[in-house]
């Protein structure tokens, strides 16, 4: 029986177990043996794999995280490591690989495909910043968690007549902040794509507090610039060269308090946005992505990625996903800005 392996790489994300479920079930229907690779590309470097059966996927569609675990290992750091992945692929007797991840994991998948690895991709990230697909799974769950947080913070902000600044994940894209901010009735939203004039923000808050409401919720994406800077938690870089963002919410809260005199607090939502059960939408998309990834393999369409176009699952070249970051278009931000009151 031909073996199809699956790995999950990069930051975890609600819906990963749905993809694994889709791959395992469709593989079984098509007469393949599904194999799980542990800890993303690290497992390919260490031949760390096991056969997946129906028992392994029992009920996992409702679980957050990934039963395969994950890592940010980058085998494309050297030719020697890339060679090792190819050798281990053969050693494990695999026919094809499904790589589930964001731009880093899929970037590796693209390079490994070019080096001869028969692989297909599945787009994953709460940040929703991958090109080549209308959306990634995990985004809907993160948005709903952030929206729920804004709803909860609103009642305490209102009772104390405070400004509450909420820092939201998303790296260099403002999708989660924009969606959750709009849905959670934020008084102002700051994203990395649009430079905010702090005097404009404070004028909006002043007008609001002196007018129809004595509290405000400000949603800020972690990658938004403040005074020309993107704030970092640490200068240290991961295997893909990423710095850790964070701190902009605290800085903004201090600045608002200084400029307006309104009592201001900040909250960092952080990894809460990635934890717990996926929404129905993320389970649904995840399952379908998994099923279609196996279809791509059966059709020999290596080097491609499953993608959502409207309600259809189609395939696009892996390069479409990783060559360019998908950020929030200015028109969408401007459309949202009429609610900054
Ligand atoms: O890419 C997903 C993401 O959650 C980003 O929104 C965030 O900046 C980053 O990962 C956090 O990474 P880590 O889990 O390594 O702290």
From the helix content, strand content and strand pairing, which structural class follows?
Answer: alpha/beta
What is the number of helices? 11
Please mark out the parts with pLDDT under 50 across 5 or more consecutive residues, or reply none: none
Question: For the terminal residues, how far apart are their CA atoms?
Answer: 62 Å
Tally of domains:
2
What is the string of helix and strand elements? EHEHEHEHEHEHEHEEEHEHEEHH
For the largest sheet, list the strands in their spatial order: 3-2-1-4-5
CATH-defined fold name of the largest domain: Rossmann fold
Backbone shape: elongated
Rounded to an integer in angstroms, the radius of gyration calculated over CA atoms is 21 Å
By DSSP, the count of extended strands is: 13
User: On the 0-100 scale, what is the average pLDDT?
Assistant: 97
Question: Mind describing the biggest β-sheet?
Answer: 5 strands, mixed
Mind explaining what this structure looks like?
The protein has helices at residues 16-29, 41-46, 79-91, 103-114, 139-160, 175-183, 198-210, 248-260, 280-298, 318-322, 330-336; strands at residues 3-8, 33-37, 49-52, 96-101, 119-123, 163-168, 188-190, 216-221, 232-234, 244-245, 264-268, 304-309, 312-317. With 341 residues, the protein is an alpha/beta fold. It has two domains: 3-137 and 278-321, Rossmann fold, CATH 3.40.50; 142-274, Phosphofructokinase domain (Rossmann fold). Helix 5 (139-160) packs across helix 6. The N and C termini lie far apart (62 Å). The model has no long low-confidence stretch (mean pLDDT 97). 6-O-phosphono-beta-D-fructofuranose (F6P) binds at residues 11, 102, 125-127, 169-171, 222, 244-245, 274. 6-O-phosphono-beta-D-fructofuranose (F6P) binds next to strand 10.
């Amino acid at each position: 029986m031909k073996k199809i392996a699956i790995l999950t790489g990069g930051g975890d994300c609600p819906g990963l177990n749905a993809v694994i479920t889709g791959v395992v079930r469709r593989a079984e229907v098509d007469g393949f043996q599904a194999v799980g690779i542990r800890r993303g590309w690290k497992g390919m470097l260490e031949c760390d794999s096991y056969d997946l059966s129906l028992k392994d996927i029992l009920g996992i569609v409702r679980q957050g995280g990934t039963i395969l675990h994950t890592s940010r290992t980058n085998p494309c750091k050297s030719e020697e490591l890339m060679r090792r992945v190819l050798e281990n692929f053969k050693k494990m007797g695999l026919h094809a690989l499904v790589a589930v991840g964001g731009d880093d994991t899929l970037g590796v998948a693209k390079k490994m495909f070019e080096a001869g690895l028969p692989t297909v991709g599945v787009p994953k990230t709460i940040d929703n910043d991958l090109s080549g697909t209308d959306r990634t799974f995990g985004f809907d769950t993160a948005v709903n968690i952030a929206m729920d947080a804004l709803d909860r913070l609103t009642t305490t902000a209102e009772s104390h007549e405070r400004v509450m600044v909420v820092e939201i994940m998303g790296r260099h894209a403002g999708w989660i902040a924009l969606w959750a901010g709009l849905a959670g009735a934020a008084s102002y939203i700051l994203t990395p794509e649009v430079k905010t004039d702090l005097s404009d923000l404070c004028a909006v808050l002043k007008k609001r507090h002196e007018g129809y409401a004595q509290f405000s919720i400000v949603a800020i994406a972690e990658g938004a610039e403040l005074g020309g800077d993107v704030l970092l938690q640490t200068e240290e870089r991961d295997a893909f060269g990423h710095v850790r963002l964070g701190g902009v919410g605290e800085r903004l809260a201090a600045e608002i308090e200084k400029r307006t005199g309104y009592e201001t607090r900040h909250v960092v939502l952080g990894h809460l946005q990635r934890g717990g059960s996926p929404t129905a939408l993320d389970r649904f998309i995840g399952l379908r992505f998994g099923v279609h990834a196996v279809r791509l393999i059966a059709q020999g369409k290596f080097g491609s990625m499953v993608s959502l176009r409207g309600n259809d699952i189609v395939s696009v070249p892996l390069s479409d996903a990783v060559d360019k970051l998908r950020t929030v278009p200015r028109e969408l931000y401007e459309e949202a800005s009429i609610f900054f009151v």
